[in-house]
From TrEMBL:
This is Uncharacterized protein. Residues 245-264 are annotated as: Disordered. Residues 255-264 have a biased composition (Polar residues). Pfam families: UDPGT. CDD domains: GT1_Gtf-like. Belongs to the UDP-glycosyltransferase family. It comes from Rhamnella rubrinervis. Gene3D superfamilies: Glycogen Phosphorylase B (3.40.50.2000). Keywords: Glycosyltransferase, Transferase. One of its GO terms (molecular function) is UDP-glucosyltransferase activity.
Length: 476
């Protein structure tokens, strides 16, 4: 049988942040397995993240273009995880500097891509594709509710009556279930928007270009996001919206999984042996993703909460980056690791998250509700304790609460929860009889079905490949 996408050349362009890149690399693997010819664009410092993808798919070609110089981004920084969070919009705008080099590359290529699949933070690639007369498909690493809100806010530009009131309610009556929430739940990309400011306008135009793009591929699945997916199709006025998630590494590929998104700072075997010694579903995993660094006050309360809770845990601690105030961020309290020896494992730096979550010993996760982590937790069938910090995380936590698969325990990057309270909720999270455990197991089963033969995500992937295979480069 002929491989469906054989001969069709596609450019994949991930946004350089682990929370955006990892899932798109998993999708790229699926596209390559379906016979598409892939070129993937990165800047030099992100090349190493492609290692597992390239070793599994030697046919994929890389296009490495220099990171465009930007005075606010230190030399050598090319990934959002190495940049303070507030400079995110600057990085988004800086990458727009790749427009001309990329256009030249297309024009000099003997058999150029017929489509660009690029992250939603690279909306300008829609205009590039239009200039070339080819198609652009936006890749969303966010869930349906978040994306629907994102599209609505950038189109409608809602404003607050009182510009200082973070709690003022903003509502989206046209989105299913008419979500209403405090202003601070909106992404800082939007709340920091200043009309006329070049970076702000770049970000807005990017978002409008996403809406205008030919297609949308999402790391989500129909059974989880049905209503919002239909809403997005209605709003965009076409059916080229493909939900192909949860995008995950293959079960059997332990080395690829251990290397996913970065090199683990502790040997995967050591972590797995540690987990092997624990009972099923009794270990709590703690993470705040690839970007968020906790303050020392937060670390102290969390460490003390873990100590008091008596639970077994793996705590993934992201260390501060240059530019984050010395002494203010992310120190594990002195003596903590000795006091919890045998009961708790602290991983500083990159943790092999999916490998950990998939272990039978893990029963709950305390997390920031980054969308990838939410999906990974669903696939692993672990209960989620939500502490949304920034960006789409508030809306993801809201969606989880609506699904009854997660419990919000804290909220906001500034919040310092009380250790006794944390101890209690953490201890309760591994109770087998919780309603959230049953609900997350149902979602886990739905995700498994969506990604098995004839499942909704597999069908959407096939539809995406079939649409791509029909495209031709206009200059041929
Ligand atoms: N991740 C990981 N190890 C780490 C930190 C993060 O493997 O030490 C992965 C995690 O599994 C997820 C991604 O990085 O796939 C983080 O994405 P998410 O959307 O959860 O949060 P973000 O990092 O964007 O805040």
């Amino acid at each position: 049988m002929a491989v469906p996408g054989t001969g069709t050349h596609v450019l994949v362009f991930p946004y350089p942040a682990q929370g955006h890149m990892i899932a798109l690399l998993d999708l790229t693997h699926h596209l390559a397995s379906n016979g598409l010819i892939i070129t993937i664009l990165v800047t030099p410092k992100n090349l190493h993240i492609l290692k597992p993808l390239l070793s599994a798919n030697p046919s994929i070609t890389t296009l490495v273009l220099p990171f465009p110089a930007q005075p606010l981004i230190p030399d050598g920084v090319e990934n959002a995880q190495d940049l303070p969070f507030h400079l995110g919009p600057v990085m988004i705008a800086a990458l727009g500097g790749l427009h001309q080099p990329l256009l030249s590359w297309f024009r000099s290529h003997a058999s150029p891509p017929v489509a660009v699949i690029s992250d939603i933070f690279l909306g300008w690639t829609h205009h590039l594709a239009s200039e070339l007369g080819i198609r652009r498909i936006a890749f969303s690493p966010c869930g349906g509710l978040s994306l629907a809100v994102m599209y609505a806010m950038w189109s409608e530009l809602p404003k607050r009556n009182d510009p200082n009131d973070e709690n003022e309610v903003v509502s989206f009556p046209n989105i299913p279930n008419a979500p209403k929430f405090p202003w601070r739940y909106l992404s800082s990309l939007y709340t920091a928007y200043v009309e006329g400011d070049p970076v702000s306008e770049f970000v807005r135009n990017d978002n409008l270009a996403n809406i205008a793009s030919w297609g949308l591929v999402m790391n989500s699945f129909t059974e989880l996001d049905r209503v919002c997916l239909q809403h997005l199709r209605d709003e965009l006025g076409h059916d080229r919206v493909w939900a192909v998630g949860p995008l995950q590494p293959k079960d059997h590929d332990q080395s690829g999984t251990a290397q996913r998104g970065g090199s683990s700072s502790v040997s995967a075997n050591l972590i797995l042996s540690w987990l092997d010694e624990h009972e099923d579903h009794k270990v709590v995993y703690i993470t705040f993703g690839s970007v968020t660094v906790l303050t020392n006050d937060q670390m102290e309360q969390l460490a003390s909460g873990l100590e008091k809770s008596g639970v077994h845990f793996v705590w993934s601690v992201k260390e501060p980056i240059e530019g984050q105030a010395d002494g203010e961020y992310a120190t594990v309290p002195p003596g903590f690791e000795d006091r919890v020896a045998g009961r708790g494992l602290v991983i500083r730096g990159w943790a092999p998250q999916v490998l950990i979550l998939r272990h039978r010993a893990v029963g709950a996760i305390l997390c920031h509700c980054g969308w990838n982590t939410v999906l990974e937790a669903i696939v692993a069938g672990v209960v989620m304790l939500a502490w949304p910090m920034v960006a789409d995380q508030f809306r993801n936590a809201l969606a989880l609460e609506q699904l009854k698969a997660g419990i919000k325990v804290c909220e906001g990057a500034e919040a310092v929860p009380d250790s006794a309270y944390l101890a209690r909720v953490i201890a309760e999270s591994v109770d087998e009889n919780r309603v959230e455990r049953q609900r997350v197991m149902e979602l886990c089963e739905a995700a498994r079905e969506a990604t098995s033969v004839r499942g909704s995500s597999v069908k959407d992937l096939e539809s995406l490949v079939a649409h791509l295979a029909e495209l031709e480069f206009p200059y041929n």
